[in-house]
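quick one before i forget lol
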Amino acid sequence: MADSKPGFDLNTFDTHWASLDSNARTDLIARAHLFMPMLGILPILEGLFSYHFNDRTFAKKSLEALRSDIRKKLNAPLDAQAYKQARSDALRICAKIYLKLSGDLAFADKSLLLSTLVSFGDSGLFLPLKPFTRIGFLWM
């Protein structure tokens, strides 16, 4: 990762985000795919639900770059440790995305989030199908 020090961590992201102006937020979203995946997904998700066109556009590009980077690591692992880390990153990102899914989202937003989950393979597919397996709609 080119910039592993984004200026926030998992606990301080909300206050950091609130202190940024519009241009700084757009810049942070555009660079988010360069951070560690668990930190990079935070500004990306904020950008996806922003009312600013530039934020949404950069968030979609950063999400795609983050997704493709992790998929490359999952498809061609160099060693067991790298594969394990990529698998862990994919599951954590999918969990963050899954937490943003709700019934009141616009169809385009739901479609983007679900297609991103599906693109992560079994790590992403597990989460949206989990409620159906509990109540007996799917037998696996």
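fyi The mean pLDDT is 83.
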